[in-house]
């Protein structure tokens, strides 16, 4: 596994763990029709955390498993910042993990909130 795929695998795991920690991980899978939406992030049928859990994470794990190219045009952070605004400071780690994913894959970090002091 190349270093980028190893790093993204770690970040995806962190994303899953943080969703679970914040009790945003769903135990009930949405109806299949909801997963087939063509709207960005399935915004018309799913909450963003559901999209992460049922669309984004499985697709990313599948790409890694099949050694396929990972996306290079990605910007999840703006959506995450909007979707998790109600969590306020509790969302800081989650937003930063998503920002890390964006930066690793696209080389850009469009994060505006909860930036780590590095």
From TrEMBL:
<feature type="domain" description="YqcC-like">
    <location>
        <begin position="8"/>
        <end position="104"/>
    </location>
</feature>
<dbReference type="InterPro" id="IPR023376">
    <property type="entry name" value="YqcC-like_dom"/>
</dbReference>
<dbReference type="GO" id="GO:0044010">
    <property type="term" value="P:single-species biofilm formation"/>
</dbReference>
<dbReference type="InterPro" id="IPR007384">
    <property type="entry name" value="UCP006257"/>
</dbReference>
<dbReference type="InterPro" id="IPR036814">
    <property type="entry name" value="YqcC-like_sf"/>
</dbReference>
<protein>
    <submittedName>
        <fullName>YqcC family protein</fullName>
    </submittedName>
</protein>
<dbReference type="Pfam" id="PF04287">
    <property type="entry name" value="DUF446"/>
</dbReference>
């Amino acid at each position: 596994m190349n270093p980028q795929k190893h790093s993204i695998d770690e970040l995806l795991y962190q994303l899953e763990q943080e969703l679970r920690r914040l009790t945003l991980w769903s135990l009930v899978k949405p109806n299949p029709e909801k997963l087939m939406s063509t709207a960005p992030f399935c915004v018309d049928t799913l909450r963003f955390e559901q999209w992460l859990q049922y669309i984004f994470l499985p697709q990313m794990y599948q790409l890694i498993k099949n050694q396929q190219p990972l996306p290079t045009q990605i910007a999840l952070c703006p959506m995450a910042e909007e979707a998790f605004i109600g969590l306020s400071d509790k969302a800081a780690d989650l937003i930063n993990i998503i920002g890390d994913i964006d930066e690793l894959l696209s080389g850009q970090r469009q994060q505006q909130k909860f930036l780590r002091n590095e």
